[in-house]
Amino acid sequence: MRNRRHCDHAKGLDHRRVRHAESSERAEPGRIEVVDLPPVDLAVVVHVGPHDDIDVTYGRLGAWVVSHALGVAGPVDETYLVGPRDTGDPTRWRTELGWPVFRLTSG
Fold it and tell me: Is the pTM of this model over 0.90?
């Protein structure tokens, strides 16, 4: 389980799951509201490389979820562990995909 944060933009037009910034930079007052979300169980995989074929990784994660009798409990969370802001070399990019899940059957 992971600590999750929610970003609610002032106009209410966009809701996203985001990680709380660890830097000292802060958004303008009134632009966002940070709230804690309850913990969730995640099926997680790390996509390695450029995002051109990230759909294949999503497909593999989805197949794993189905084969383990799990249901999806919400939107996928993408965490850019290493991305374009970190390096211009797409072969070094690492994107963590996490689907909130729940068990469909007992056992």
Answer: no
